[in-house]
Structures are given as C-alpha cells and as structure tokens.
Design brief:
Domain Kinesin motor: 7-109
Low-confidence stretches: none
GO molecular function, one term: ATP binding
Largest sheet: 3 strands, antiparallel
Order of helices and strands: EHEEEEHHH
CATH architecture: 3-Layer(aba) Sandwich
CATH class: Alpha Beta
Distance between the termini: 28 Å
Mean pLDDT: 88
Oligomer: single chain
Pfam families: Kinesin
Shape: globular
Bound molecules: adenosine-5'-triphosphate
Protein name: Kinesin heavy chain isoform 5C
CATH topology: Kinesin
Strand content: 15-25%
Subcellular location: Cytoplasm, Cytoskeleton
Helix content: 25-40%
Number of strands: 5
Length: 109
C-alpha cells in the first residue's frame, strides 16, 4: 500500500527513567535496534517511528503532529491520541510545552 494511503500511524515514545526509579537503582531494559523498532529482551516491536528517551517535545511534535495540523488547516479531519500505562508519559507528550522553541514551531505550523 502506498504510504499516503495509510491513514493510521502509530509511534512509540519511551520516557527516561525518573528520579525515583533512578534512586531505587532501576535500569531500563529497552533497546532501540532501529529508528522504528523497540526491543524488550528478545521481543521486538515495530512502529512507524520510535522516540527514544532523549527525544524532545519539538521532535515529537514535528514528526507526529505537525503534518496533521497542516491537514486540519486544509479542511481535513485528524485525531491524535496517546495510549499507555499510567505514568508512561501521555500527558507530558500531549501537553507539555517545555521550551519556547516548540511554541514558535506550533505558531508557525
Ligand atoms: N519524555 C519525558 N521526559 C521527561 N519526563 C517525562 C517524560 N515523559 C513523562 N515524564 C514525566 O513522567 C511523569 C509521568 O508522566 P505523565 O504524567 O505524562 O504520564 P501519564 O501517562 O499521563 O500518566 P497517567 O496515565 O497516570 O495520567 C511526569 O512526572 C512527567 O513529567
């Protein structure tokens, strides 16, 4: 199927370990064998794109949401939703404008 005909895209964002997790000595078991792949031990999961813990809000917005904003402004419908277990970073990813460069990016679409 041609890429433009694929109407649903799934991206995965892996958040960094938080302070509490680091303080308890937790270690990440997630590996990134390719830009679209997450590995948990022997299990591999493939997505349209994978954002590693170092990814920024700007990177996530630019890759995932910005094209849809353009489509919506052209009169098309689009939906973005976040799915994941509690504290996995859904709110952070959807709502946190942590730096001013993102705001500029949003404003300039
Ligand atoms: N990419 C990230 N970089 C830094 N901190 C993050 C990131 N993603 C999430 N966090 C932090 O992890 C914590 C949990 O994130 P968040 O509240 O977004 O999770 P959630 O999936 O919305 O949780 P819930 O389902 O319980 O509402 C927050 O303190 C948030 O600031």
């Amino acid at each position: 199927m041609a890429d433009e005909a694929i109407r649903v895209k799934v991206v995965c964002r892996v958040r960094p370990l938080n302070e509490k997790e680091r303080a308890s000595g937790d270690a990440s078991i997630v590996n990134f064998p390719s830009p679209s792949c997450v590995a948990l031990g022997q299990r591999m999961y493939t997505y349209d794109h994978v954002f590693q813990p170092v990814s920024t809000q700007v990177e996530v917005y630019t890759t995932s949401a910005r094209p849809l904003v353009k489509d919506v402004l052209s009169g098309y419908n689009a939906t973005i939703f976040a799915y994941g277990q509690t504290a996995s970073g859904k709110t952070h990813t959807m709502e946190v404008y942590a730096d001013h460069s993102l705001y500029r990016t949003v404003c300039s679409v």
